[in-house]
Write a structure and sequence with these properties.
Layout lengths: L4 E5 L3 H13 L3 E5 L2 H11 L3 E5 L7 H11 L5 E5 L4 H9 L4 E4 L4 H29 L12 H13 L6 E4 L6 H10 L8 E5 L5 H9 L16 H4 L4 E5 L6 H13 L1 E2 L8 E2 L3 E6 L3 H6 L5 H7 L2 E4 L9 H16 L6 E2 L1 H9 L5 H15 L4 E2 L6 H9 L12 H19 L4 H8 L3 H10 L7
Parallel strand pairs: 1-2, 1-3, 3-4, 4-5, 6-11, 6-12, 7-8, 8-11, 13-14
Antiparallel strand pairs: 9-10
Length: 458
C-alpha cells in the first residue's frame, strides 16, 4: 500500500518537529507548515491524505485553516490540536466539520490512533466514490428514455456530435434532461476518461464564479490564501458543462468568448496566460436568441456557442414518453427501495399522461419515488399519486387533445369516472337514484364504482 501523506501545521517548531518525527517513524510521509498560509500552499503541492493542525496560531488559526480546506477539498480529513483544557475549542472544531480533535499535551498513541481511524474511513469513502463513478457509466445512451420523434432526432444529433470537439448548446425547461444529455455527450466521446466538470453559472455571485472557473492567484483578493486551480483547468482534456449560461454576467461572457475563441485564459489576479483543451457544453433555461435581442446576452458569444443546438421539449409535449419514463423510474426506484412493485395501473397512468408536469421529467421521477415509498400494494394506483396532481389531471383535457394516441378504453376511463362521480354527488350518494340517472343497472354501477375506487367515498 502506498505511503500515506500527512501535513502537520503548528507555529511552535518544537511541537511540530517532534510530532512529525514520531509520525515519520510510524511510517507516514510528513510535510510541515509553520502557519496557516504556508499550510494552504503546501496543500496544493503535496496533496496530503490528512491534515493535523494546531488550533492556536497567529494569523490564520486552526479553525480558519479547517474552513479553507473544507471549501477546497471537502473530503480531506482534518484533525485539530486544541489547547490544554479548552473544551470550547474542541466543540467548535467538531461543529465546523473537523474529523476529530486531540488536546494538548499530545499523547503519541492517541494521535496515531485518531490518524489511523481517519485514514481508514477515508479509504472506505474513496471506494464508495469509485462505485459512484461506475454508476456514472449509466449516463450512456441507454440511460436516456424516450420514443417521441423529437427525442429520436436528439439522439441522432448527439450521436453524431459526441465524438467531435464541437460546442453544444442545450436549451429547455428545468428537469427536461439537459444535464443527462451533457453527460451522455461526454461519456460517448474519447474524453470519457478525463473529467466531466459541471458549473452552475446561476449559483454563485459574479466574482466568485470567475475565480471558480478560471482560478486565482494567491493574494488577488481577501480570502485568496493560496493559488486555486479553476474548473477550466480541472476539466483539461475533458468536458466542462456550463449550466444556466443565461445567467452569465457581461464580464464572464467576455471571458468565455475569449476561452472559446483562443482556448486561453488568465487566472484572476495573475498575468500568465494558460491554455486548456476542453470541450464546452452549455445549457440554458431561457431562449438565448431572445436574450440577445433584449441585449442581455452578447451576440458574438451566442454565435460561438450556438454551433450545435439541442432543444429538449417539455414533458407535456411528449405525452407518449410519460408511460415509458414512469415505468423506467418505477423499475429503478423499486429496486433501490427493495420493493416488489411491477406495475402502474391504468387509471394512474391515465392521470400521469394528463398532468402538465411543470417540473418535467424530474417531477415525474419524484412523483414515482413518492408513490413507491408510500404504497402498500404491489401496484401503483391513482391514490398513490400526489393529490395536487390528481386534481389537476382530473380537470385536464384527455391526452387526445395533445395529439397523442392512447388505447381507446383507457382514454374513456377518466371521463367515465368523472360522469359517475358527478351523478353520485348529485344524488347524494344514493346508488338507486344514481343508476337510474345514468340509465344503467345497479350491478353495473357497483362494478364501475369498485373499478374507480368510489365505493368508500359514496
Ligand atoms: N429522457 C430521459 N430518460 C431518463 N431519465 C431522464 C430523462 N430525462 C431526464 N431524466 C432524469 O430526470 C432528472 C432530471 O433531468 P436533468 O438532466 O437533471 O434535467 P435538467 O438538467 O434539464 O434540469 C434526472 O434524474 C434525469 O436522470
Ligand atoms: Mg441540470
Amino acid at each position: 500500500m502506498a505511503q500515506k501523506k500527512l501535513l502537520v501545521v503548528d507555529d511552535d517548531s518544537l511541537i511540530r518537529r517532534s510530532l512529525s518525527a514520531v509520525l515519520r517513524l510510524a511510517g507516514y510521509e510528513v510535510s510541515e507548515a509553520a502557519g496557516g498560509t504556508e499550510a494552504l500552499e503546501l496543500l496544493e503541492k503535496t496533496t496530503p491524505d490528512l491534515v493535523i493542525t494546531d488550533f492556536n496560531m497567529p494569523q490564520l488559526n486552526g479553525m480558519q485553516v479547517l474552513r479553507e480546506i473544507q471549501a477546497r477539498q471537502p473530503d480531506l480529513p482534518v484533525i485539530l490540536v486544541t489547547g490544554y483544557g479548552t473544551v470550547e475549542q474542541a466543540v467548535e472544531a467538531m461543529k465546523a466539520g473537523a474529523y476529530d480533535y486531540v488536546s494538548k499535551p499530545i499523547i503519541d498513541d492517541e494521535m496515531k490512533m485518531v490518524i489511523r481511524r481517519a485514514l481508514d474511513d477515508r479509504t472506505l469513502r474513496d471506494e464508495n466514490s469509485d462505485l459512484r463513478k461506475r454508476l456514472d457509466m449509466r449516463f450512456g445512451y441507454d440511460a436516456i428514455i424516450g420514443r417521441d420523434h423529437r427525442m429520436q432526432r436528439i439522439y441522432d444529433t448527439i450521436e453524431s456530435v459526441a465524438p467531435t470537439r464541437a460546442t453544444v448548446l442545450i436549451s429547455g425547461e428545468s428537469g427536461t434532461g439537459k444535464t443527462l444529455i451533457a453527460r451522455a455527450l461526454h461519456h460517448n466521446s474519447s474524453r470519457r476518461d478525463a473529467p466531466f466538470v459541471e458549473v452552475n453559472c446561476g449559483a454563485l455571485p459574479e466574482t466568485l464564479l470567475e475565480s471558480e472557473l478560471f482560478g486565482h492567484k494567491r493574494g488577488s483578493f481577501t480570502g485568496a490564501y493560496a493559488d486555486k486551480q479553476g474548473k477550466f483547468a480541472a476539466a483539461n482534456r475533458g468536458t466542462i458543462f456550463l449550466d444556466e449560461i443565461n445567467n452569465a454576467s457581461p464580464m464572464l461572457q467576455m471571458k468565455l468568448l475569449r476561452i472559446l475563441q483562443d482556448k486561453e485564459f488568465e487566472p484572476v489576479g495573475g498575468n500568465e496566460t494558460k491554455r486548456v483543451d476542453v470541450r464546452v457544453v452549455l445549457a440554458t433555461n431561457l431562449d438565448l436568441a431572445s436574450e440577445v435581442e433584449k441585449g442581455n446576452f452578447r451576440r458574438d458569444l451566442y454565435y460561438r456557442i450556438n454551433v450545435v443546438s439541442v432543444h429538449m421539449p417539455p414533458l407535456h409535449e411528449r405525452v407518449s414518453d410519460i408511460p415509458l419514463l414512469a415505468k423506467h423510474f418505477l423499475k429503478d426506484i423499486a429496486k433501490e427501495n427493495g420493493k416488489r412493485i411491477r406495475e402502474i395501473d391504468e387509471q394512474a397512468l391515465d392521470l400521469l399522461t394528463r398532468y402538465t408536469w411543470p417540473g418535467n421529467v424530474r417531477e415525474l421521477e419524484n412523483c414515482i419515488e413518492r408513490a413507491v415509498v408510500l404504497t402498500r400494494n404491489d401496484v401503483i394506483r391513482a391514490e398513490d399519486l400526489p393529490p395536487a396532481l390528481r386534481d389537476e389531471a382530473a380537470d385536464a383535457p384527455t391526452p387526445l387533445d395533445h395529439g397523442g394516441v392512447v388505447p381507446l378504453k383507457r382514454a374513456l376511463e377518466a371521463p367515465e369516472r368523472r360522469i359517475i362521480e358527478n351523478a353520485l354527488r348529485e344524488n347524494g350518494g344514493n346508488r338507486q337514484d344514481t343508476a337510474k340517472a345514468l340509465d344503467i343497472n345497479r350491478t353495473t354501477l357497483f362494478n364501475k364504482m369498485r373499478k374507480y375506487e368510489l365505493l368508500e367515498k359514496y
